Amino acid sequence: MDDNKMVAGKVKKPGKRGRKPAKIDLKAKLERSRQSARECRARKKLRYQYLEELVSSKERAICALREELEMYKQWCSAMDQGKIPSEIKALLTGDEQKLPQGGSSTKTSKNKNNISSNGQG
């Protein structure tokens, strides 16, 4: 019992617990670590690509909305001067074919037609 130490009434054996790592285990651990780092970098690259595409699509949407807002501002200023733009006339009469192709989206014109035909606009 000379090798064992008595601490708080319990016998402790000297030395470390568990198994000692062999050199093969160290090499395997390093390789696993490298592989994990590779995978982490690949995930990070994919995440950044996704975020860049998301930002790009949001920027395009913002540009489209700004153009639409500018068009509405022009319509409002024309109506303030007493002129009714042809696009608005076409929307009010329901002639969507008279609308220029680049003027407004069909989604917007459909919504306006629905509002004006329902009597809510």
TrEMBL record:
<keyword id="KW-0010">Activator</keyword>
<feature type="compositionally biased region" description="Low complexity">
    <location>
        <begin position="101"/>
        <end position="121"/>
    </location>
</feature>
<dbReference type="GO" id="GO:0005634">
    <property type="term" value="C:nucleus"/>
</dbReference>
<keyword id="KW-0539">Nucleus</keyword>
<dbReference type="Pfam" id="PF07716">
    <property type="entry name" value="bZIP_2"/>
</dbReference>
<feature type="region of interest" description="Disordered">
    <location>
        <begin position="95"/>
        <end position="121"/>
    </location>
</feature>
<dbReference type="GO" id="GO:0030154">
    <property type="term" value="P:cell differentiation"/>
</dbReference>
<keyword id="KW-0805">Transcription regulation</keyword>
<dbReference type="InterPro" id="IPR039250">
    <property type="entry name" value="CREBL2/REPTOR-BP"/>
</dbReference>
<feature type="domain" description="BZIP">
    <location>
        <begin position="26"/>
        <end position="75"/>
    </location>
</feature>
<feature type="region of interest" description="Disordered">
    <location>
        <begin position="1"/>
        <end position="24"/>
    </location>
</feature>
<feature type="compositionally biased region" description="Basic residues">
    <location>
        <begin position="10"/>
        <end position="21"/>
    </location>
</feature>
<comment type="similarity">
    <text>Belongs to the bZIP family. ATF subfamily.</text>
</comment>
<dbReference type="InterPro" id="IPR046347">
    <property type="entry name" value="bZIP_sf"/>
</dbReference>
<keyword id="KW-0238">DNA-binding</keyword>
<keyword id="KW-0804">Transcription</keyword>
<protein>
    <recommendedName>
        <fullName>cAMP-responsive element-binding protein-like 2</fullName>
    </recommendedName>
</protein>
<dbReference type="InterPro" id="IPR004827">
    <property type="entry name" value="bZIP"/>
</dbReference>
<dbReference type="GO" id="GO:0003677">
    <property type="term" value="F:DNA binding"/>
</dbReference>
<keyword id="KW-0221">Differentiation</keyword>
<dbReference type="GO" id="GO:0003700">
    <property type="term" value="F:DNA-binding transcription factor activity"/>
</dbReference>
